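Before surveying the methods themselves, let us examine one representative protein, pairing a chain with its fold in token form.
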Amino acid sequence: MKNKVLFLPFLLLHYAVSAQQPILSDSSATLEEVQVRSFEQNRKQSQTAVNAIAIEFNNGDRNNKTALVSGFNTIAGVRMEERSPGSYRINIRGSSLRSPFGVRNVKVYWNDIPMTDPGGNTYFNQFAYNNFSWIEIFKGPAGSMYGAGTGGLIQMYNLGKWQPGATAEYNIGSFNRHTLLATVNFGQKENKNQITYAHDEAAGYREQSAMRRDNFSWISQLKISERQKITASVLYSNLYYQTPGALTETEYRNNPKAARPAAGGFPSAINARAAIYQQNLTAGFTNQYTFSKQWSNLTTLYASFNQVKNAAIRNYERRLEPSTGGRTVFSYEKKINTESQIKYSAGAEVQAGWFNTRVSNNRNGQPDTVQTNDDILFLVSNFFIQGDWIIKEKWFFNTGISLNRSSVEFSRLSQYPVSNQKRIYRNELAPRISFRRNFDKGFAIKATVSRGFSPPTIAELLPSTGVISTELEAEYGWNYELTLIQSLLKNKLRLEATGFYFKLNKALVQRRDISGADFFTNAGNTKQKGLELTADFFTSFPGKWVYYCNINAALTMNHFRYGDFVRGTVDFSGKTLPSVPARSFSLLADVQFKNGLYSNATWYAASSIMLNDANTAKADAYQLLGWRIGWRKTINKKYKWNFFAGADNLLDEKYSLGNDINAAAGRYFNAAPGRNYYAGISFQWIKPSAPAAPPLK
């Protein structure tokens, strides 16, 4: 079993691309199209111009709940990397070029709460698999309604198909992996509650790569009246994971399980006791109010607190990051006549963060002499307006624009007198226009033109070198994409092809010094062309011993190049962008039998990846094979059992996932696990519906 923090393995569901999912009954299996909520759509995917992937859970996951990376990597244009268990990068069409670790340049929401902090960072590793039942992914700039970020948008929701009851699951696997998930739903239809708990721990594949996480969430939704609904959400996560550090190619070939050794005057990862201690707490509520048949409002207020302690080989960093904010959207919707309707949305999002970052010497995993101590104030605002127009349920238009402003102010408390630096990024416009045309016989076409921008994040303005870098500029660019969709065989086969071109100016690029510390610079521009192809086939066999089968294939082809990029006397123009494979392919095959047995097979392949701007080093191509078998049993419609076992990387490939880009001394490689196994059991109890009350006489 791959040593990965649990969280989104359900992205490996076979309907991740088609945004459809089988709804199984005793007699048939059909496809149900789910709704898209992003960009205030609240419509089926076939009835919106927004090109988002929507995934809804009805029948559980298809693979090991700790296989997060393999799940993401089966979606065309999306790639997840793991430097060590608990440390993630998400790459949407090349967005991780500037992310040595963590999730940047992608905006993330949970139950309408911004999880991307004012500094532009998202602690994706705080989530567990049972923190949500619905997820949407939008690829490309989403700034017309969601502000900064050229990579895309991820929205997550709880309380999808809520019903009273309880679920528990326990997994064991290679490298002493143990995972426990528990969910309790209680209340009534007008007052829904959900409490979740997750525990995950593992010794790790490499030296100095153990991890442990505890996660708790509570969601309560109260229907005040026919017009008003309030949702309260609380999420807490306590995460500890060791960081083994990157290896040179020679070290990686000789012993991929090893942690980074002592070198260049710096201690080994083991002697430095390199590890991250992370706690996250977020609480917020959303008020949904309908004023009339036409007017409505959705308002979210939240507060969060993050504490991170990072014992690295070169220093010991402690971050305290309290923040707060809110988002409000007013909508007006009206049918013009029997053949057309309009919807207008306008609103704003505001965030503020009061951070403190203190960097000290690292003495055997404990802070020693203070190097720097900085207070950082972030203020971010986003004002937007959007319009939708639907004609005859065949033409769908969506257009929007936002005005954005952000500022950051540093106060270096470790100097006397205290020094201050401030930078304002203002008046950034982010327009977007999209349309969809539905034709006869299952054919449709989509097109989008959008502008995105992304100012430097806190980790780029104050990197691990400790040098404040307010001279960095915001990157920006225009994105053009076209999508063709074809449904065949009575909607059993769905084909989709998307081509895009994104030109990014002043691209932020990461560098690493000899100690492994990261710093950043603005490149000239990048030219990113891509083609994303998907095919999804699903069929059921009523009355047969095979219940249903599904085959899904996804192919991503990228041609990402630097445009004009000269650093000093070195010209990188025309070089391939590092961190992204030119080609990747995934193939999923699922079979569910009538007697409850099932099989899920997954094959994933990626081409070689450039590791530096000069294209003088690259990671090898690799392919991964995974297989899971299990047996599901339902008793009296109230009790559901699921027994399963599986294996990842059956071919025992040696490969590096989460490479360190532009690393000094050639320390690029973070080895991923070889062949590994897992097994588990889950139990679900569904509370019977209460009988209807007798009518009053």
Notes: The two ends are 62 Å apart (CA to CA).
